[in-house]
Amino acid sequence: MAKLRTMNKNSQEFIRLLTQAQPSLYAYILSLVPDRVQAEDLLQETNVTLWDKADQFKSGTNFLAWSCKTAYFKVLSHRRALARDHHIFNDELLDYLAERQSNRVDLLERRREALQECLKKLSVYQQNLLKARYKAGGSIKLIAAQKRQSTGVISQTLYRIRCALIKCIEARVVAE
User: Fold this and answer.
1) Does residue 115 form part of some domain?
2) What pLDDT is recorded for position 12?
3) Looking at residue 84, which CATH number applies to its domain?
4) What pLDDT shows up at residue 60?
5) Residue 27 falls within a domain, yes or no?
6) pLDDT of residue 97
7) Which domain holds residue 88?
8) Strand, helix or coil at 93?
9) Tell me, what's the pLDDT at 51?
């Protein structure tokens, strides 16, 4: 609790990094522990450990890599607790999967960031069309009725937008 009372700029930055890392960190843990409930529990345990060790994080370094390493040790600890279960992967396979998934998490994070930038390049009409399609309950049929256009026109427009986004994302990731 003392940490919360002494919140400073470094703590706020740490919280921002931790919050941004949650989807990627959860995906990483879930790739190593296929049970969603266990993965969620391990994510929370990892978050507590990361918060406790916040002063050990060096600003400017790769937060996601650091947090994934912490999660990896949480998964190992969890596996040791379940050592009697014969449905658990051996440690060599877990190490292999963890390394591969760590690389994927980094790539997914770069692709997510690229997507955010590429979305900004779309016209307002295109952005609104995507929002309408992907909001809860959004459908091509509903959009077509609202825009007084055929479903074919809306489908084709969304297809072209998605193709443009894919090209933009790939170009940004390759450029990195």
Assistant:
1) no
2) 86
3) 1.10.1740
4) 83
5) yes
6) 79
7) 1-110
8) helix
9) 93
Residues lower than pLDDT 50 in the chain: 1-5, 7
Number of domains in the chain: 2
Q: Evaluate whether 130 touches 116 at the Cβ level (below 8 Å).
A: no
Distance separating alpha carbons of residues 23 and 10, to the nearest angstrom: 22
H or E segment to which residue 28 belongs: helix 9-32
- Please calculate the CA angle 121-111-55 and round it to the nearest 5 degrees: 115
CA 76 to chain centre: 21
Tell me the per-residue pLDDT of 135-151, one tens digit each, with 9 for 90 and over: 888 899 999 999 999 99
User: Which SS3 state, helix, strand or coil, does residue 39 take?
Assistant: helix
Please check whether residue 117 lies inside any domain of the structure: no
pLDDT of residue 103: 73
Q: Is the pTM higher than 0.90?
A: no
Which residue type occupies 95?
D
Residue 46 gets which letter from DSSP?
H
Q: Give the residue carrying structure tokens 């933009």.
A: 168
- Please, what's the b/e burial string for 7-32 (b: 16 or more CB within 10 A of its CB; e: otherwise)? eeeeeeebeebbeebeebbbbbbbbb
